[in-house]
Amino acid sequence: MKIYRWTQMSEREKERLLRRAELDISQQMPVVLNIIDEVKKGGDKALCRFTQQFDQVSLTPENLKVTAEEIDKGYERVSEAFQQTLRFAANNIRKFHAQQMPKPLWFTETAPGVMVGEQTNPIPDVCIYVPRGKGSFPSVLLMLAIPAVVAGVPRVVVVTPPNSDGNLDDAVLAAAKVAGISEIYKVGGAQAVAAVAYGTETIPRLSKIIGPGNSYVTAAKRILNGVLDVGPPAGPSEAIILADETAQPQKVALDLMIEAEHGPDSASLLVTHVSALAEKVPAIIEEQLAKLSEKRKSFVSTVFNSYGGIILTESLEESIDVVNRYGPEHMEIMTGDPWAVLPKIKNAGEILLGQNTPITLANFLLGPNAILPTGGFARTYSSVSVFDFLKRSSVGYVTETGFQKLKDMAALFARQEGFETHALAVEER
Questions:
Q1: Rounded-to-10 torsion of CA 74, 80, 83, 87
Q2: What does pTM read for this prediction?
Q3: Which listed residue, 61, 110, 181, 287, has the most CB atoms within 10 A of its CB?
Q4: For 377, which DSSP code?
């Protein structure tokens, strides 16, 4: 495992860690442009052709849409324990996002006779993209569909790639039932993004798509941005554990591996000023690697020798500065008083406090959304929330008294900026 001494690193070395595995999609762009064009022209037939080509699954336009019976049977086939787990997670996610809901309408008086405010409405429709490339992700469906439902979106559609049998994984179907989603299509990749951007004979044209995907999905979103709202950016997984001398090395090591197992392009860093902790953690991780499958072991080992490892600082304050400069997707604060550190963390997708709040809990069960900004975008983006499924309209109302107070100043502004009809609208009213 690489250990970096922050004060001894060159700016170039620091920038490399801060950039993570930048997603280069230049090679995918020509392929995706062709897919988009074919789906736009060929509709369902093109979707089925690309599903055969990329997923090795033979589908017809008639079975692209998942039936209510398929959803029910998928739910029935998962264990009762998992059904209960899905319901528990969904309840927490629903409670959290319900607290985010703003007032549907509010007003304030800015001057006598002048009322201004906002009206909030749900977006008309949305596509939830649930990936499948590296496994089955029912948690993604819950995290994206539930806030959309809470926000009141009238039409919530799910697209997700089929498995090798041409069906959807039972866990995903079960999550859809628990979330209250009934419109699902067996299609993924760039072709799915194109389908909801333009519509096909079976799949509706939608206003927005949201959800993580592979490099082809990312390329399709980039190309089609403007045709539909493509949601917040999403890249390889990343995490920082911020720890001091009170942190238990075993817990630090275990949590440090969580995001590293997502793939070789992930990033997972321990940031600490405690040399003794930095010395103990690698040996514990080495022991834990023996418990992993070869696939996950390979991912974790690669990450800790590329975009992950340990950053050793001179003080807790310097560690905090490193975290804010990095802007991680996930972070845990394992310090003696995490509540004192919390206000100092300005850039992070999620902040988990204490030694009993591993990322695992947040990914599935706590309630806050686990779809978070990556690649440093936590500096300007937030986690997915009900606000991704809402839009606001400004509202204004002026009485005759209010108009008389404002009209001369408004005309002065208009003349100052050279807008003659603007001025006439208040001068000649």
A1: 150
A2: 0.92
A3: 181
A4: G
In terms of Cα–Cα distance, which of 361, 251, 259, 359 is closest to 300?
Answer: 259
Q: Could you read off the pLDDT of 9-32 as tens digits, one per residue? A: 999 999 988 988 776 788 889 999
In terms of residue numbers, what domain contains 296?
235-379
- Contact (CB, 8 A) for 49 and 162: no
pLDDT digits (tens, 9 = 90+) for 216-254: 998 999 999 989 999 988 888 999 999 999 999 999 999
Buried b (16+ CB within 10 A) or exposed e, 314-339: eebebbbebbbebbbbbbbbbbeebe
Degrees, nearest 5: CA angle 74-175-50: 75
Annotated active-site residue 38? The verdict is no
Say if CB 259 and CB 299 are below 8 A apart: no
Look up 69 and say whether it is catalytic.
no
Catalytically annotated residue among 70, 238, 329, 332: 329
Question: Cα–Cα distances in Å, from 235 out to 39, 81, 126, 160, 253?
Answer: 25, 32, 21, 18, 24
Domain count for the chain: 3
Task: Tell me if 14 is assigned to some domain.
Answer: no
Phi-psi domain of 367 (left: phi exceeds 0; alpha: psi -120 through 50; beta: other): left
Answer whether residue 393 is part of any domain.
no
Q: Give the tokens for residue 251.
A: 């817990």
Are 197 and 115 within 8 A, CB to CB? Answer: no
Indicate which residue of 330, 332, 417, 420 is catalytic: 330
